[in-house]
Specification:
It is built from seven helices and five strands, in the order αββααβααβαβα. The protein is of the alpha+beta class. It has one domain (about 5-130). The chain has a three-stranded mixed sheet, with no helix packed on it. The radius of gyration is 19 Å and the shape is globular.
């Protein structure tokens, strides 16, 4: 029988692990050489790049009551593994598991499309170094650029008010 720890370790070693679709950043410590931090980005670059293709090829299925807050059950049913639960949320524009309830329909991308996305993964040795002169305490936005028009309007309005 698998423990959660063993299952999580096994899933993290799979090429289909969610972190393999993200950029990775490293931040070096000014004071301690051993305190360098490598972390994944918030955005899922490969999913973002393929979003509209995923949408166009997805099929609609009726939401089952037993899937209440369990996108991993959907992943297991359609892909044979629970590792694609984040893709199910992403394609359906659901931001967290708590919102995965009382839906009428779900979009399910085809498995061959998911496997095709593996070719577009971010290489694990492709690590971006963060600049040391970034002032995180004064930064107002942590977003992917370019900003959309609505975000630009909000920024301009804030600047006019100030």
């Amino acid at each position: 029988m698998f423990s959660i720890k063993r299952e999580a370790k096994r899933n993290s070693e799979l090429v289909t692990d969610l972190d393999n679709f993200r950029n990775h950043y490293i931040e070096y410590s000014d004071t301690d050489e051993d305190l360098n931090v490598t972390f994944p980005a918030n955005e899922i670059e490969t999913y973002d790049r393929n979003f509209f293709m995923l949408l166009s090829r997805s099929k609609k299925v009726s939401f089952k009551p037993e899937w209440f807050q369990r996108p991993d059950y959907v992943s297991k049913e359609y892909y044979g593994t629970n590792i694609f639960w984040a893709l199910i949320l992403f394609v359906n524009r659901i931001s967290n598991i708590e919102e995965f309830k009382n839906l009428s329909e779900l979009l399910i991308p085809p498995y061959n499309m998911v496997l095709d996305m593996l070719k577009h993964r971010v290489p694990s040795d492709d690590i971006i170094t963060l600049e040391e002169d970034v002032n995180y305490t004064e930064a107002r936005y942590f977003k992917i650029f370019p900003l959309d028009n609505r975000e630009l309007e909000v920024i301009a309005a804030r600047e006019r008010l100030a």
